[in-house]
Design brief:
alpha+beta
């Protein structure tokens, strides 16, 4: 019997398929366990109770969530930096000096995403502690994504589909994409950063425009008194 989307079947052979828990869930054809069920578009899994909840404003819920949740442009998703600690164990007496690094991960973005191997991170084997940035939801720290509207809406470009991390406009970085990089500046937290040359040119244009406006006003005043 073919296992259809929205259901699963853990045993081979004849027998009915088991539907996912409610209409908010679905699954891919051929699913074999309830763990293969995930939320329909418009919903996201709450990590505390594994139920599907309607997505809050700012989240892009146009597709199901077997991968990283995404935010719409103009919004920022809370990120955290986690430490990756190497474990070292001794082998038998002939290999006492050989350190073997094993993998310890305290997070799992989704059972649909294969956990990356330490070797794939490009980290050399050693005693150092390394860090990895991800969203608080992918890290399992928050039950739902924490989404904040950016002060400068055009500074936040949404989510990188591969990493799940925030994308900032060129020249900006940090929380809410609110910090300017070198050679960039801005006049207000509600405006995105611009290159210093552009800023100077804009200020010069404003000064010139003010002088022109003042000259125009004085001219009208002079003509009105004749």
């Amino acid at each position: 019997m073919r296992v259809r989307a929205g259901s699963f079947k853990s045993e081979l052979g004849p027998g009915p398929c088991t539907p996912c828990r409610n209409e908010k869930f679905t699954s891919l054809p051929g699913s074999v366990s309830e763990a293969d069920c995930f939320c329909n578009p418009g919903y996201i899994t709450n990590r505390n109770d594994s139920q599907c909840y309607e997505c809050e404003g700012g989240l892009d819920c146009s597709e199901p969530f077997p991968f990283h949740p995404r935010v719409e442009p103009g919004y920022y998703q809370l990120e955290v930096t986690l430490s990756i600690l190497p474990e070292h164990v001794h082998q038998d007496e002939h290999e006492q000096d050989r350190d073997v690094r094993t993998q310890r991960w305290e997070w799992n973005a989704s059972h649909y995403i294969a956990l990356p191997k330490l070797a794939e991170l490009g980290r050399p084997v050693g005693n150092d502690t390394y860090t990895r940035k991800m969203t608080s939801y992918d890290a399992g720290i928050t039950a739902l994504p924490v989404v904040v509207e950016c002060l400068a809406r055009d500074a936040c470009l949404g989510t990188d589909p591969d990493t799940g991390l925030n994308l900032c406009k060129k020249g900006q970085h940090g929380f809410l994409c609110g910090a300017c990089e070198g050679h960039y500046t801005r006049t207000s937290p509600f405006y995105s950063c611009a290159t210093c040359n552009t800023y100077a040119q804009s200020m010069a244009a404003i000064v010139v425009a003010n002088f022109v406006a003042l000259g125009f006003i004085f001219g009208l005043t002079f003509l009105s008194q004749r």
